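Dear colleague,

Following up on Tuesday's group meeting, I ran the structure prediction for the two-component complex that the binding team flagged. I've pasted the input sequences exactly as they went in, so you can double-check that nothing got truncated or mislabelled along the way. The structure tokens for the whole assembly follow below. Feel free to forward this to whoever is handling the docking comparison.

Inputs:
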Amino acid sequence: MSKGRILSIQSHVAFGYVGGKAAVFPLQCLGYDVDVVNTVNFSNHTGYGRFGGSRATAAELTAVLENMEKNRLLQPERLLTGYIPGSEALSVVLGLAQKLREKNPELIYLLDPVLGDSGKLYVSPDVIPIYRAMLPLSTIITPNWFEVETLTDVQITDVSSLRRALKILHEQYQVPNVVVSSIPLRPWLHAALPAQARPSGSEPDASYLLCIASSATDTTKGPAPSAVHIRAVTCLSGYFSGVGDLFSALVLAHFRAGPHAGMAGGSHLAHAAAQALAKTHAMLKLTDEYAAALPEEDRLPTDEELDAREPERKVRRMNGRELRLVQGQDIIRSSALADAKMSSWEGFWEE
Amino acid sequence: MSKGRILSIQSHVAFGYVGGKAAVFPLQCLGYDVDVVNTVNFSNHTGYGRFGGSRATAAELTAVLENMEKNRLLQPERLLTGYIPGSEALSVVLGLAQKLREKNPELIYLLDPVLGDSGKLYVSPDVIPIYRAMLPLSTIITPNWFEVETLTDVQITDVSSLRRALKILHEQYQVPNVVVSSIPLRPWLHAALPAQARPSGSEPDASYLLCIASSATDTTKGPAPSAVHIRAVTCLSGYFSGVGDLFSALVLAHFRAGPHAGMAGGSHLAHAAAQALAKTHAMLKLTDEYAAALPEEDRLPTDEELDAREPERKVRRMNGRELRLVQGQDIIRSSALADAKMSSWEGFWEE
């Protein structure tokens, strides 16, 4: 049982499960040696409202990476990067990704371009061009809806603009594999889906999320820029932190290496995304059931006004909704979830 | 499967398995939620010769802990502290331990007083009095031989001085449980052991190590200050890093909580130490077998002169001997190792 080595560069929190705390344990459970570089050392995730600790400076990150390199410890088969605060630190990671890609064309690099969510940027805008420079180095990216729009400068309002955004990622930025999870299933998207992928027995509404896996194809053999696979999952109400970090880690863990892993068509990516989706969803359900059984004061709904007046309110809610990663470790370790499949979106690229 | 929450405060390395990297994954595998406070963020352990990164300042540690406290996230059932660089940072941890002990008399605190090894101090001498002040707050300590001598100011050369050192720890410093692992089985110690605990079919020599678990007893019921249990294990040649950190984590993980866990006699401690010893030994064997199968240049023996001339030599050896924690995770998870038992050292306290 030795699947190789992953270098993970993301945030660290003492309490709870976001960033590295959501990614490293699952990767280890699945048999990977994980090298862990912490971009921040915080008490807890920022959603609590109160948090403290420090960000690693560019010089500190460089010192860690340079000494690893001198000691020939910088030879991971896979690279995973998540939240990295500030453009200076991000530039260090860009330089690292360039170096690793150059040394090893077979490197599997999952880049999660953490920029923001639901229309709000939560990083400084000067990191956007750096992320764009990183895209061609990646094997897989896992942006959310908003991050796709920000990186491609395309507002996605219909299938045509969705095609345009994916085309930019695959062709202009040379990203072989794109997984966009958690897309609200708006009416236009619901209507465009192939019948077998539409959530059964329900009207189109925001209680479903769609995951799209788009894997670039060899365009010398056909006109479609990518093979597109999809799956809709039910949306659990309320906010859970670290879900995207867990999902990205699981996509990377389940992505099969191979001589042309990056360009091997849709099957590798769709397999990995399907497993990651099923396991993440099962973990969320476990967490949701746990949270639902807590005393009422630990699950007061989001109310910005009340939350601002009583910080405890938010803190208790956040704590009650931390991922049950340790308690649900058997979910992560389960070898193959039989019903974890994505549907092919045939004809996606036909205008 | 929810065993409660452990706050772990120790060093972090990006590559390899020492400090938190050797402790946290095993604790998570065994079902504990682990809050992880990093006292350093280094590239690799210092044994490689070259390393880089940063130490958390006392102010940074305080910021993390204070924000956890404000958010009511500082309520662990168990506390684990390992390597903490410098007296200022250590004083912060002393203050934390005092606060947690005061809030929760049932707190199970495993203190690994990391001072040095084999006659050499590898911390600043000004931390020694701070560690002495921490001892009465602990439930279990896991010093090595040299650390027992340093903390008690007793040179251990015979059974009488061993008794004196343990008595000081139990009575003067009020430590309920002491586990000293990896004591070279010198002739005087071999000769003093009860017959059933002596390694069978062999002369006394340095190829055996003894583990002693000493659990304070209720002295109103009898004259002996503690129940003493022992087990000898064969010693693998060469140096492995992170072994003590893994061992301490496993002792804590297997120590049963209870209304009087700290003072419940020898059985709880002997059980935990026996499991920790068996699992650590199995992990070491796995690592040793892996290292033995590496190409010759990755397993060149320690030679200070050659190592100084060629830093690569040492680096490769260190890398080849990193614990196979991920590959051996089934060892950690195994529920009960039947032959993992310690022998009672009856009559240890009789002069």
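Chain A has twelve helices and twelve strands.

Cheers,
M.
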